[in-house]
Amino acid sequence: MKGHTRAQAAGVPPELSARLGELQAQSRTPTHEEITEVVEQMMGSLQGDLSEVNLKIYSELESLAKYILSAKREIAALRPDEITAEHLPTATDELDAIVGATEEATNTILQAMEVMGNLTEKMTPEVADQVNEAVTQVYEACNFQDITGQRITKVVKALKHIEDRVDGLVAAFGDEISKYRDTHPKQEAPQEKTDKDLLNGPQLPTEASKQDDIDALLASFD
Amino acid sequence: MSVDMNMSILIVDDYKTMLRIIRNLLKQLGFNNVDEATDGSMALQKLRDKDYGLVISDWNMEPMTGIQLLREVRADSKLKALPFIMITAESKTENVVAAKEAGVNNYIVKPFNAATLKTKLSTVLGQF
After folding, report:
1. Contact B15 A149 (CB under 8 A)
2. For residue range A72-100, what is the model confidence (pLDDT) as tens digits?
3. Using omega within 30 degrees of 0 as the cis cutoff, is the peptide bond preceding B83 cis?
4. Domain spans of chain A?
5. Is B13 an 8 Å CB contact of chain A?
6. B80: CATH
7. What is the pTM (predicted TM-score) of this model?
8. How many CB pairs lie under 8 A apart between chains A and B?
9. Per CATH, the architecture of A80-184 is what?
10. In whole angstroms, what is the distance from residue A106 CA to residue B11 CA?
């Protein structure tokens, strides 16, 4: 038995039954507005049959549904899709760059210390001892790279966890977010950049201009 | 019993800089035969291919961690008596307890200094 004929058999008014049939026949999920419309029609048709307590419950449920809808719209307005698409990947890239840069710098320091350590053979024993002591202190200080690397790795993992959760939120609220995106397109960037807009900070190694690029750019003004 | 300063030592850490630091500190202490591995499975292979007098291993590595390496070493009839020092940033009591239960000989917390390394080596290997 089809949905709307079942509804008719259950004593549902023909108009409401026809509307339910239409909604069932369409391939997409009904919108919140459509559901609200049907619920209101149903409430109207049932008013005479319901007790005051039941009506109170239905009223509370309706308020709750409206509250949930409002909350979904507010969350959609926060654009969680931008967090996973732009902000979090940028943050993790920056952190990876920190690990790479500190590792490179630490290796350079260690290499210099190794050269210095080898030169102690040419020094007097007294001087060699003093130099070795200083070199040892540098080795000890270079522990920082391992520790900071591990700490940053923990932060990257935490960001990845947040990204997964926000992805779940975006998937659950997909329709609301795309609706909000369509009705609130991003503002065009201002024509003239302010000094604040120019504070980009260090660029990632893959995006940074080399000194040769800068020199070429400067030369292009001549 | 005197310490064999020519013994082969295997150091295991996934940070190349840390391997370099430990190697240099060992060199300053007089140990020059030092090999490196970047995780537990690579270390285990090296331990089975060559005779070593000591393992100094990090904990947090992939795919095989330091504690897994330690358990593999203690479960291997040929390696089970090998001195094993854990050198790690994992400083919780539960980590130290787990390492001790797995059979670690000593435990150094990062960041560490040369004096601590020397003290721990003396404790495990004897005075040198």
Report:
1. yes
2. 888 888 787 888 788 888 888 899 899 99
3. no
4. 3-77, 80-184
5. yes
6. 3.40.50.2300
7. 0.69
8. 54
9. Orthogonal Bundle (1.10)
10. 19
